[in-house]
Automatic annotation (TrEMBL):
Pfam families (UniProt xref): PNP_phzG_C, PNPOx_N
Organism of origin: Viridothelium virens (Speckled blister lichen)
HAMAP family: PdxH
The protein's name in its UniProt record: pyridoxal 5'-phosphate synthase
NCBIfam families xref list: pdxH (TIGR00558), PRK05679.1 (NF004231)
Amino acid sequence: MIFAPGGTDANFQAQQYTKGSLEISDLVDDPFQQFHIWFNHARSQNVHQPETVTFSTAELPSGRVSARMVYLKELDDRGFVIYSNWATSRKAADVASNPHAALTFWWHELERQVRVEGEVERLTSEQSQIYYDTRIRGSRLGAWASEQSKELRSREELERRVRDVEERFEGQEKVPVPDFWGGLRVLPKTIEFWQGRESRLHDRFCYTKDDISQSEWKIRRLSP
């Protein structure tokens, strides 16, 4: 049904990446600072929603992998933070059985990607409340109303649940974060910075450390 997409007209050749290059001299020692530099550059170059990231998990013992698009909401000197439902969602079930996860950022306008792999930890309700309070009221109430990933009989069932939550918190500006909802931090052991190059001879540099408690990172160039 699909064969060699990406070319133009009768040309089946894939698009060439020509917008940049990457050398080890371009990198700083700390991958979190390096990500911060790239992220700010992406924003300055009007990359569409550079915080959009694929969050990948795997269930054990089956090994079944699942992935979904989410938003990066925080970066600190320990890791990358996303927010979600951690009671009923597929990702919740995955990380309950397997504490390892991956993030993949793709910034098409710059022909760059960043790949992150590591273990995960939940933020406390107190920590999650800080971000939760920044959301519009509808999103805060929606977190209470949605049993994420559970089957719905109809759209009306979801809307009824939302109305029930609206009544519960009517006249209450401060809505508490649900205990089943909040932040998850990916604590990286590996962070790769990838710059597209012609003929698929991409520049790839990988920061690694054997244990998340270590402070120093090793940087290696990888074959494309």
